[in-house]
């Protein structure tokens, strides 16, 4: 059975004291995850080791970085490399988040480089894809997502894609007042899995965890996660509220 994942993306929020209190509150909920379930916490770079020390108390609680550079080292002031993450014992890294694509103009080619460097250093990517409102209104979202996957991932081998993690972000439904239904989430997740199957076969496609990143909250997680091709969520704002994220973790199937 492929992994079911509740991934928290803290973004650029919280002081270290606040972050430690948040993760402690979640740890103290004594959530017992099944072997196929994980909670992943993508925290700001300065907090990685401190939060990891607390999360390590719980089986299947993992830590992720929110980004890495597309170079192994060099004169890139302020950047963090995949080898650095590996040496800190960080197992996951978010790559291609919609905010990185929009604000820092990260291209599909650059993201392919980041995926490669992460894998070379045994840091598992959580690869984000998604479409804007204009693309959704033009009804070209399927082609857009397929292009993102092909240009950033389809150079990988079947072995590298086996068990891969993808997060689908309907950018048009995040903070816009528009709502994506669980049926729309399932439709896109099914499309993503079909695109992967066409390239790598149904066995690999069935192993890929596809997370939904469209304003997952405690009151909609059960419905969204119940869909057959939705394997959990990449959670933003709700992951900063202990009770909300605890409920979301408990909604995993």
Number of domains: 1
Task: Compute the separation of the termini in Å.
Answer: 11 Å
CATH homologous superfamily heading:
Aldolase class I
State the CATH class.
Alpha Beta
Poorly predicted segments: none
> In the CATH classification, which architecture applies?
Alpha-Beta Barrel
Mean pLDDT: 96
Q: Please bin the fraction of helical residues.
A: 40-55%
Radius of gyration: 17 Å
| Structural classification | alpha/beta
Q: What is the tally of beta strands? A: 8
| Strand neighbour order, sheet with most strands | 7-6-5-4-3-2-1-8
What's the helix-strand series? EHEHEHEHHEHHHEHHEHEH
Give me the CATH fold name.
TIM Barrel
User: What is the molecular shape?
Assistant: globular
Secondary structure tally, helices: 12
Biggest beta sheet summary? 8 strands, parallel
């Amino acid at each position: 059975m492929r992994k079911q994942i509740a991934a928290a993306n803290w973004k650029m929020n919280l002081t270290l004291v606040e972050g430690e209190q948040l993760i402690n509150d979640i740890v103290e909920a004594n959530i017992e995850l099944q072997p196929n379930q994980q909670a992943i916490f993508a925290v700001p770079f300065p907090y990685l080791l401190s939060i990891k020390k607390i999360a390590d108390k719980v089986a299947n609680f993992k830590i992720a970085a929110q980004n890495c550079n597309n170079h192994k080292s060099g004169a890139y002031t302020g950047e963090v490399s995949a080898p650095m993450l590996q040496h800190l014992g960080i197992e996951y890294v978010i790559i291609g988040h919609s905010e990185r694509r929009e604000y820092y103009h990260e291209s599909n080619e650059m993201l392919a480089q980041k995926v490669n460097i992460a894998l070379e250093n045994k840091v598992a990517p959580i690869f984000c894809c998604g479409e804007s409102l204009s693309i959704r209104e033009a009804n070209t979202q399927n082609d857009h997502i397929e292009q993102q996957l092909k240009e950033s991932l389809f150079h990988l081998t079947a072995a590298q894609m086996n068990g891969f993690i993808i997060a689908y972000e309907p950018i048009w439904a995040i903070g816009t007042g528009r709502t994506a239904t669980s049926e729309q989430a399932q439709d896109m997740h099914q499309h993503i899995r079909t695109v992967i199957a066409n390239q790598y076969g149904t066995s690999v496609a069935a192993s890929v965890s596809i997370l939904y990143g469209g304003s997952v909250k405690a009151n909609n997680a059960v419905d969204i996660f119940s869909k057959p091709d939705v394997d959990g969520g990449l959670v933003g704002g709700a992951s900063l509220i202990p009770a909300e994220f605890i409920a979301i973790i408990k909604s995993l199937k």
